[in-house]
Fold this sequence. Notes:
Layout: H1 2-33, H2 42-67, H3 76-88, H4 92-100, H5 111-130, H6 134-145, H7 165-175, H8 179-191, H9 198-216
Helix pairs in contact: 1-2, 1-3, 3-4, 4-5, 6-7, 7-8, 7-9
Amino acid sequence: MVDLVFEEARECAMASRAVETIVSQFDACKVNSVGADPILHADYLQSCKDRIARLTPELTRASKSLTACGPNRVTEDTWFRATRDAAAAGNQQAQLCLVDGKFKLTTPLTADERREYEVQATKYINAGMQRGDWRMAELLHASRRYRTDGMPLPGTVLGSDLPSILELNRLLRLAASDKAYSTRLDYLPASRGPAPSPQDIQQAQHWAERTCQLYFKHSPRLATTPEVCSSPYVVM
């Protein structure tokens, strides 16, 4: 039952986000197009036209999904609670979404709730890595690359005890079976901050090989970035 509640709450929250994001883009195009010179602003006007054409089917699909959602299921708070309960019941997708922590809560967590979240998230991180789940490795890799400051559930659990971005990057690189994905992973360490030293790369490679042998040797290889807790809707 908790799995079904989680999936329904997730679908409703994602649909609500998609509608809000797409409508805001359409509104911006409408406002900025008023009085725009058709020659001077031709590129912008065309980009708006293309965007509206591309996203209208997604808006229709997300809006249709929302009609099946009760008002309480649309809230981010509902999705968070459903995710927390399903994760506690062993739902691995819910555990990933909970660790991801990107809930736009209207009611902030209490100090006790935040501590409990961090305890549970740490447990799910360890379980995900130990079962050889590439999605958890990617979640940690992305969380290291993109700060989540300002979110109601910041990545405070993703602290210094966890692998570095370079270690996670090298771990994912071992799994990469596609040339474009491999190239992208090779580029990332140098794309943010100082380039890692040869010694750093060597140490990270050793950690990745050891971790892969321990937990990921039976996991399938990756042709692209694994999906973690992403929206089924195209909103850009």
